[in-house]
Amino acid sequence: MKFFRWQGVIAFALIGGGIAAFSMLFMDGMIERGIEENGSQAAKTQIDLASLSTSLLSQAARIDGLEVANPNNNMENLLQVENLSMDIDGTKALARKIVIDDLQANGIRLNQKRRSPAKIISSPDKDDPAKQKSEESGSIGLPGLGGIDIKSPEEILKSEKLETLEAANRAKETIENLESKWKNKFATDLNPNSLKETQQKLKQLQEKVKSGGLASVPETIQEFKSLQKEIQDRISRIASLKSEFEKDVQAAKKQLAELKNLPKKDFDRLKKKYSLNAEGGGNALGTLIEGPLKAKLDKAWKAYKMLSPYLNKPKTPAAEDYQYVRGKGVDVRFAQSHPDFLLRHANLSMSLLDTEVKGELKDLTDNPKVYGKPAVMDFQAGKNDKFDSFNLNAELDKTDSQSKDTLKINFKGLNLQGIQSEGAGKIKGGLANIKGQLKITNENDLDGSFKAELENISLSIPKQGGNELANTIADSLSAIDRINITVGINGTIENYQLDIQSNLNDIISGAVKSALAGKMKGFEDSLMKAIQQKAGGSIAGANGSLSGLLGQNKILEENQSAYGGLLGQAKGGASGIKSPPLSLPGGFKLPF
Amino acid sequence: MIHQLLKIFKALNSDEKPWQLSLGLAFGGIIGLMPLWTPHNIFLIFLAFIINLNFALLIVGLVFFSGIAYILDPIFHQIGLTVLTAEGMQDFWNGFFSNPIFLFDRLNNTLVMGSLLFSFAASVPLFFLLNFLIRKYRQHIQGIFEKIPILNSLKIAKVYDTLSGGGK
Questions:
Q1: Distances (CA, A) of A410 to A395, A434, A456, A501
Q2: Which terminus of chain A, N or C, has less C-beta within 10 A?
C-alpha cells in the first residue's frame, strides 16, 4: 500500500484551477458588491459604483461612477467621483493591508442631485425631524428679511411663559394650602366641644358652690384652680397659634406684594426680546447668519466625527478592545511597521463652481501613529472666469497623542455676480476675498477665524409688501458697495460659539432705528395690556385666597374671647369660695 | 445521514488499512474544525488529495466536525485570544507576524489560531484512538455481519454488498 497517490495532484489542480477561474471571472463583481454593501453599512449611507475592474497582473483597480448619498437627503449625493484609478501594493495585500501607491480621482463633485432616491440606512439622527430640518435649512447667503417682522403680543404670549402668571398661581396655591392647614389646626386644637366641656365644668363647679357645705370647700377650691389652669393653658395655646397665624399671613401678604412688580418685569423681558431696538438691529446680521452657518458647520462636524475613527486607530489596541463575534473571531494586532490602510499619493480633480480645481492628497492612513506622517491635502487653482485664485490646504496630524488638524482657505476675487438666495435677493455684481483658518485640537477643541471682504457689491433685494422694516433694511443694503464680515469660532464641536462682526451691523442698526421709532411705542402698550390681561385673573385669584385665609383669624379671636370670659368666671367663682361669710346654723353670726 | 453511515460501514469493511481510515477522519476533523477558506486549510486539502487516505471518511469527518466547530466557537476564540495576547509571547508574535505570509494566513485571528491549536492537538490522540477502534471492530464485529444468515437469505444483495465493502 503506497502512502502517496500522485494522481491526487492532478485532481487537486483541476478542482483548484476551476475554483480560481470562477473567482477570477466573478471577482470584480464580488468586490463591487462588497464595497457597496459593507461600505453603505459602515458609512450609514448608500454607496453606489457604476463599475469596478481589477487587474492582478498590474496590481491596479479602476472604479467608475462612485456615488455616496447624503444621509440627510436621499435625493442628493454628498460626494460623486467620475472615475478613480489606483495602483495597489500587491506584497502588502498579502499581509491584508491596503496600500495604494498612487490614485487618480477625476470629476469630484459635492452635493449633487441624484437620479433616483437613495435607500435609507438606519441612523438615529434620521428620527429627529428637528435636527433634519435644521440641517436642511443650512443655505448660506443673505437670509430673508421677512424674519424681522414684529410679532403681535398675542402671538408672543402664546409661546412665552409669564413669570407673573406662574408666581400668581404659586401664591394662590400657597395661600390655599395655608388656609387648609389652619382649618385642620383649628379642628384639632380649637375643638368647639372642648370649649363646651370647659363651660360645662365651670357650670358644675358653680352649682357645687351654691349647694355645697363647708366640708367640700377645699376640694372645690382645688377644682376651681385646676379649671383656671386648664383655661389659662388654652388661652396660651390660642396666643401661640395667633402668633404663628400672623406670621403665615405676613408671608402670604409678602408673596402677593411681590406679584405687583412682576408684570413690569415680564414686560421688560419680552420687550427686550421681541422689540427691534437699535441694539437688537445692531446684531441683526449675526442673528441672520448664525443659524444657517451653524447648520452648515454642524454638518461638517458630523462628517469629521464620522471619518475620524477610521483615520486615527490606536497603535496597539488593548485586550479589552477585542470584541468577540461568533464565527468571525477577532484579529489581534501586533506591533506594526505599516498601517492597515495607506494612500501614499493621490491626484484629485474637483469641480468647484463649475470650474476644475486640481489637488493632491498625501499620506492618508488609518494609523498615523504607526506611519508617523500627517495627511496633507492641497487644492490650488489659478485665474479663471469665476475667481482669481483658490487655495485650500488641510492637514490631519494625528501622529501624536494630541491630534492637530488644520484647515486653511484663501479664495481671491470670487465673482459674486448672479448669486441668489431665496428671499434675500440677488447679488448683481461684486468680488469677494475669503481667507481664514480653523484648528481642531484633539478632534474636539475649535479655534478658527474667517474673514470675508466683499467689494464693489451691488445687491438687489425685492420689496416685501407690508413689511416696512424689511423694506427699510433692503433699501439700506442696496445702497452699500463694500461689506466686511469676520467670523470667529471657539469652543468644542458639541458646544461652540460664533462671533460674527460686520460693517453691516451699523447699516442695519441705523435702518432699524428709523423704522422702529414709532412702531415700537404701539407694540409696547399692547404688550403690557396683553400681559395684564393674561395674568390679571390669576392675581385676583391669589388676592381672593388671602381673604379666605384672613377669615380664619375670626375663629381664633372668638375662641380667645370665649376662653377669656370663662377664665374671668372661674376666677370669680374661686374667689367667692375663698372668703365666704362664716355662718352658723339658725342665722347666728360669730362675733369676730 | 443514512448515506453517510453506509459510507462509514463500507469503509470499515473494506480492505483499506486502519491508518488510512483514521487519517481520513482525523484530516476531516482538522479541516472541519478550522475556518474553511484559510491558506493552511487549502494546503491540508491538498495533502489529503495526495496522501492515500480514505476520502469518504474525510468528507464525513469534515461535515461532522464543522458542526462541532460551531458549538466550540467561543472556546476556540478564548484559546486563540489567550495564546495571542499572552504577555510572555509578545516578542515571539511580533517577530512571527512581521512575515506577511502569516498575516495572509490569518493566524492573528483568534478563531483561526484557537481552532488550529485545538484541532492539531486533538487530531493526534483521535488518530490513534480511531486506529485502535477500527482494529477492534475488524477483530470482533466485522465477522458478525458475515454470519448473519438473514442478510444472505433475504438476498438484499445491494445493501449486503455495500455493508461488506463492495466485494473488495
A1: 15, 6, 19, 19
A2: C
Strand A483-492 to A98-113 pairing: unpaired
First to last CA, chain A: 159
**How many whole angstroms from its chain centre is CA A105?**
40
In angstroms, rounded to a whole number, what is the distance separating the alpha carbons of residues A365 and A16? 35
CB within 8 Å of chain B, chain A residues 310-369: 319, 322, 324, 326-335, 337
Domain coverage including residue B93: 2-163
How large is the average pLDDT for residues B138-144?
A: 81
Give CA–CA dist B4/B19, Å, rounded: 20
Please name the residue of chain A whose CA is at the shortest distance from the CA of residue B45.
Answer: A12
A86 close to A66: Cβ distance less than 8 angstroms: no
Residues in contact with A504: Cβ distance below 8 Å, sequence separation at least 6, in sequence order: A285, A477, A480, A483, A485
Cβ–Cβ < 8 Å for A324, B80: no
Compute the average pLDDT of residues B6-17: 79
Q: What is the pLDDT of residue B133?
A: 92
DSSP A258: H
- Identify whether B168 is part of a domain: no
Does the interface ipTM go beyond 0.85?
no
Q: How many domains does chain B have?
A: 1
Average pLDDT of every residue of chain A:
81
* Segment 1-60 of chain B within 8 Å of chain A by CB: 17, 20, 42, 45-46, 48-52
